[in-house]
Amino acid sequence: MRLEKLKTFRRELHQHPELSGKEEETAKRIRDFIGEDPNTTIISGLGSHGLALVYEFSPGPVVMLRCELDALPIEEVNTFEHRSNRPGISHKCGHDGHMAIMAGMIFWLQEQTFKKGKVILLFQPAEETGKGAAAVIKDPRFKSFRPDFIFAFHNIPGEPLHRILVAETNFSTTVQSVAIKLTGSKSHASEPEKGNNPAVAMAEIVLAFEALNQHLLSALNFAVITPVYSTMGSKDYGISAGSGELHYTVRTGSDENVDRLKAKLHTILQQITKKYALQCDSRWFDYFPATFNNKNCNTIIQRAAELNDLPLRIQPHAFRFGEDFGWFSRKYRAAMFGIGAGENCPALHKEDYDFPDELIPTGIKIFGGIISQILKETPEN
Fold first, then answer.
1. Rounded mean pLDDT, 3-22
2. Whole-number mean pLDDT of the chain?
3. Which of these, 103, 123, 137, 341, has the minimum number of CB atoms within 10 Å of its CB?
4. CA 322 to chain centre
5. With contact defined as beta carbons under 8 Å apart, do 93 and 72 qualify?
6. What one-character DSSP code corresponds to residue 380?
7. Confidence of residue 377 (pLDDT cuts 50, 70, 90)
8. Residue range(s) occupied by CATH 3.30.70.360 in the chain
């Protein structure tokens, strides 16, 4: 009965997605779903629309669990009844399912009899832009939590359903985006030599950046430089373009490597734009620091999987996506793990992705196992 309630809630969240930094209604839905509990203190507006549910037994270790609130600017193509009702916005990363699991943890906590400790359930805004975790940490109220441990997870399509995935060191890579604007001068399309069209320079930049790609995660020079958007000139066929833009995401295995890679990209831009006498302005944004997994936290996650008879795989390398949970792992004992979403599940950020409801009890079990170890109780399945 409780599982059905959580499934219904997950689908309600899926129907009403909100973009990063605009999750006010989502936070209200969570608060309404939780209702009133005399043992739970609710703190709203953390780092904009973040929500923290503080469940305290008595003084002792403080365990924080974190999930995400935001959706993506992607048009959903699914036709099921709970499809997004907001054009151009949908939950294509599974944050609706992550929230449903976190909401289910309140029910789980209400059944526990721990003699000590505190559990904080954090619903974090703006993960997709890399801004949410940093904003929550900067909120003065966050400092009062003093978490001893922070855990989070992400569903992983392509992996067997319910498999727990633990990364030995980093869970996710360092990711940052860059917008490059090239400015020359317009001219009549019949006389391009009288202007300065950036087309050839843009082509050389694309090829030079592509040559730096090394997709093998184990490589020291691992780098994925992905073009995500470009534009040049306008649809006026008598005008030779005088400006253009290239947008990329850049990801590497560590913060140090991304700094080295950024220096290489800067040198390439300087050389090519000088060659073609173009003005170049580049802007870096949406920074996701690598998520470093604390060794002790990893051990706790593995033990939670074993206690709940969940399949487990240890992987030596990080996932290639970015995760702003890295801001937490910089300051606290923290770890992030994956839960397999099924080998045939559409990939994250695909138009037809939908979070598998079967993972809701799995997420509650492993989070329960994590909490129980730290608060010195035997987990209940």
1. 98
2. 96
3. 137
4. 6
5. yes
6. P
7. low
8. 174-288
Q: How confident is the model at residue 39 (pLDDT cuts 50, 70, 90)?
A: confident
Give the number of other Cβ atoms within 10 Å of residue 320's Cβ.
14
CATH superfamily of this structure's domain 2-172+290-374: Zn peptidases (3.40.630.10)
Integer Cα distance of 315 and 65 in angstroms: 22
Q: What is the CATH number of domain 174-288?
A: 3.30.70.360
Q: Helices 24-34 and 95-110: crossing angle, nearest 10°?
A: 30
pLDDT at 119 over 50: yes
Q: Which residues contact 28 (CB under 8 A, 6 or more apart)?
A: none
CA dihedral 347, 255, 335, 10 (to 10 degrees): -30
Dmax over Cα atoms in the chain, in whole Å?
81
The pair of structure tokens assigned to 319 is: 């996932």
Q: Is the pLDDT of residue 378 over 50?
A: no
Q: What is the pLDDT of residue 381?
A: 41
Pick from 158, 181, 173, 175: which is nearest to 226 by CA? 175
Measure the CA–CA gap between 70 and 128, rounded to whole angstroms. 7
Helix (H, G, I), strand (E, B) or coil at 220: coil
pLDDT digits (tens, 9 = 90+) for 167-190: 998 999 999 999 999 999 999 999
Residue appearing with tokens 């209400």: 110
The per-residue pLDDT for range 122-162, each reduced to its tens digit, is 999 999 999 999 999 999 999 999 999 999 999 999 999 99
Give the count of alpha carbons within 13 A of 113, CB side only.
Answer: 2
Task: Give dist(CA 198, CA 240) in Å, integer.
Answer: 10
Q: Which long-range contacts (CB under 8 A, 24 or more apart) does 106-110 make?
A: 106/34, 106/37, 106/40, 106/53, 106/55, 107/2, 108/364, 108/367, 108/368, 109/39, 109/55, 109/371, 110/37, 110/39
Q: Give the whole-angstrom CA distance, residue 102 versus residue 6.
A: 10
Q: Are 134 and 350 in contact (CB under 8 A)?
A: no
Taking Cα atoms as reference points, which of 130, 150, 136 lies closest to residue 27? 136
Residue ranges of the chain assigned to CATH 3.40.630.10: 2-172+290-374
